[in-house]
């Protein structure tokens, strides 16, 4: 997989696709230009990618994206309801600490992004050894429940996706 | 059919508008920075999402062309919103939140904003 000509096949694919989507019109010329960018950029930036994230399970990644998208819609409604219908005195915010089993930086980044986008939680900081994540909750009754939900719903899936 | 299409597009625009408004209202209403951070990272996502869905529907159903720009906007939004939220929360924490106000890491090292990484300290 790791040749000098094509150091990062997934990045090549992503760049080509992004180029075509940005152009918004599919022609052969655009495809060639997109492929050229997709080939040149990974070669030029190969030195900045000492470790490449490996996707073990692309199908699982699609499932994860769908779940997160659905959760974002739910999160919007939940947060909107809290903002509109709860008096400030009734909003109980709290910090919680979620211990991580994930070790790959890419997987932790995805998890932190997911936490920020989903129901009433914002990821704020990592432990300095990167094995715990600090999460701020807008309103919770059950801190342990949220922690278990993050671990079961997102982290377990990410463990499957990133080898 | 045309009426139904317009109804659909208008509905998406209104839903987007409502969520955008609620998100902005949250910025005014909530009490501290960490709470306010929740409003723009979430409520506003669906606000922008609603407008983008309306735009895609308009181009697909009325102009008869598939438009993918909206998908790109969504993707860039999802990539950048958590990062900027993280920047804001970190800055705020270092200014106004003491280490005694947040739970411990559950490990023998502290949080990254306050402590050096193990092995990196002098």
Q: What is the topology?
A:
The complex is a heterodimer of chains A (163) and B (122).
Chain A: H1 9-23, H2 28-45, H3 58-85, E1 94-99, H4 105-117, E2 121-126, E3 132-137, H5 143-161
Antiparallel strand pairs in A: 1-3, 2-3
Helix pairs in contact in A: 1-2, 3-5, 4-5
Chain B: H1 2-29, H2 33-62, H3 69-96
Averaging pLDDT over every residue of chain A, what do you get? 81
Please tally the β strands of chain A and state the result: 3
Distance separating the two termini of chain A: 15 Å
Query: Strand fraction band of chain B?
Result: under 5%
Q: Major beta sheet of chain A, specifics?
A: 3 strands, antiparallel
Tell me, what's the shape of chain B? Answer: elongated
Please state the CA-atom Rg of chain A, rounded to the nearest Å. Answer: 20 Å
The number of distinct helices of chain B, counting runs of at least 4 residues, comes to 3
Oligomerization state: heterodimer
Strand order of the largest sheet of chain A: 1-3-2
Q: What class would the helix/strand composition of chain A place it in?
A: mainly alpha
**What is the count of structural domains of chain A?**
2
SSE pattern of chain A: HHHEHEEH
**Integer tally of domains of chain B:** 1
The pair of chains with the biggest contact is: A-B, 39 and 50 residues
Uncertain runs of chain B: none
């Amino acid at each position: 997989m790791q040749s000098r000509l094509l150091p990062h096949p997934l990045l090549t694919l992503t760049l080509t696709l992004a180029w075509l989507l940005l152009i918004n019109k599919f022609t052969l010329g655009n495809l060639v230009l997109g492929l050229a960018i997709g080939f040149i950029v990974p070669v030029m930036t190969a030195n900045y990618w000492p470790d490449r994230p490996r996707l073990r399970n692309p199908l699982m990644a699609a499932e994860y994206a769908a779940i997160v998208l659905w959760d974002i819609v739910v999160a919007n409604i939940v947060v909107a309801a809290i903002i509109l219908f709860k008096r400030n005195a009734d909003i109980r915010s709290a910090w919680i600490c979620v211990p991580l089993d994930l070790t790959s930086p890419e997987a932790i980044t995805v998890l932190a992004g997911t936490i920020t986008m989903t129901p009433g939680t914002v990821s704020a900081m990592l432990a300095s050894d990167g094995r715990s994540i600090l999460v701020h909750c807008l309103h919770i009754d059950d801190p342990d429940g949220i922690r278990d939900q993050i671990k079961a719903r997102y982290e377990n899936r990410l463990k499957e996706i990133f080898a | 059919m045309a009426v139904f299409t317009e109804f659909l597009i208008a509905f998406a625009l209104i839903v987007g508008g409502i969520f955008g408004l609620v998100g902005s209202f949250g910025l005014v209403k909530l009490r501290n920075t960490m709470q306010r951070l929740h409003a723009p990272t979430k409520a506003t996502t669906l606000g922008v999402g609603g407008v983008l869905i309306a735009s895609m529907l308009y181009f697909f159903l009325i102009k008869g062309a598939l438009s993918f720009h909206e998908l790109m906007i969504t993707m860039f939004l999802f990539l950048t919103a958590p990062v900027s939220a993280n920047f804001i929360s970190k800055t705020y924490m270092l200014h106004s939140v003491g280490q005694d106000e947040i739970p411990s890491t559950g490990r023998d090292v502290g949080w990254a904003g306050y402590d050096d990484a193990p092995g990196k300290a002098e």
